[in-house]
Amino acid sequence: MSDNSQLLSEMNARSREVFRRVVEGYIETGEPVGSRTLTRTMNEKVSAATIRNVMQDLEYMGLLDSPHVSAGRVPTQSGLRMFVDGLLEVGNLDQQDQRKIDETLGGNDRGVGDALDRLGSALSGLTHGASLVLTPKHEAPIKHIEFVSLGPDRALVVLVFADGHVENRVFTPPMGQTPSSMREAANFLNAFAEGRTLGELATVIEREIKSRKQELNTLAQAMVEQGLAEWVGEGDQHERLIVRGRANLLGGGSDEEDLERIRTLFDDLERKRDIAEFLELAEEGEGVRIFIGSENKLFSLSGSSLVVSPYMNADRKIMGAVGVIGPTRLNYGRIVPIVDYTAQLVGRLISDQG
């Protein structure tokens, strides 16, 4: 980032203007921008030959690229990074955009999950990208826990919370589990569960298992340990990732290579193996963060950008994140305030429910 800032400061006014207009033209149209186009929009009258020389210098600096044999240029990933860090003008949230986001919460009588689904859909609709909403797990005290066998390698844990909320979570039980071992595991958990959150319960159970191994048969102990790992294990700190607007990334006459990249992106999302990292990326900086192309380790798709912001509860604790994925030529100046506002809205919604 600092190298880009230094590079930008060393550029003269003409080079900065050519660079900015190429990036803005590319973001608007997705097409290479040529010297003849720039001669009509530059603040000072300069020849197409002069602009071509400037563009060649910018290409040598690694900020622009020539994708085809045409004279047009597009920004490189480094160029987009420098534009976002040094030249991007982020406006205020458009009132019409704000109204559409606010309307998604009108008459919300179907719970937080439904409201977050609607917010995700609104976000993808407004930005023409795919929206991501990482939601927190329910952290109310537990009232009751039950295990239900779904087959040899699948089981369901039913969690009843003190506030009336009920959750069903599927996990893989240990081999050889029986109805009696599942009942024994549930009874063991329920003896300590009431009045404790899942996080608190995990700590208590780990301590109890160590001190009371003789009282638990091996299978019940494995049920307890494996069930708890599903709830509070590393990388599983959040309940789910809501993804909306996939079709937005598939439109626009994408070629086969683009479609394959998009399929890879959604494979990564659905596996959720790095969801914890998604939130960590958001936590590293204040407010909205922008990740361009391969800067974003979470996704294999290099030809995309992620605009993401964490949201917080009333105690200023980060609970999750809201983001938009799209092509690198996203309209960052418009999308940043939309993501920022949506994250604030989700934070208030979570706090009110809390």
UniProtKB/TrEMBL annotation:
An example Gene Ontology biological process: negative regulation of DNA-templated transcription
GO MF term set: DNA binding
Domain of life where this protein originates: Bacteria
Pfam families: HrcA
Entry keyword annotation includes Transcription: yes
Family: Belongs to the HrcA family.
Protein's job: Negative regulator of class I heat shock genes (grpE-dnaK-dnaJ and groELS operons). Prevents heat-shock induction of these operons.
Protein name in UniProt: Heat-inducible transcription repressor HrcA
Record organism: Halocynthiibacter halioticoli
UniProt lineage: Bacteria, Pseudomonadati, Pseudomonadota, Alphaproteobacteria, Rhodobacterales
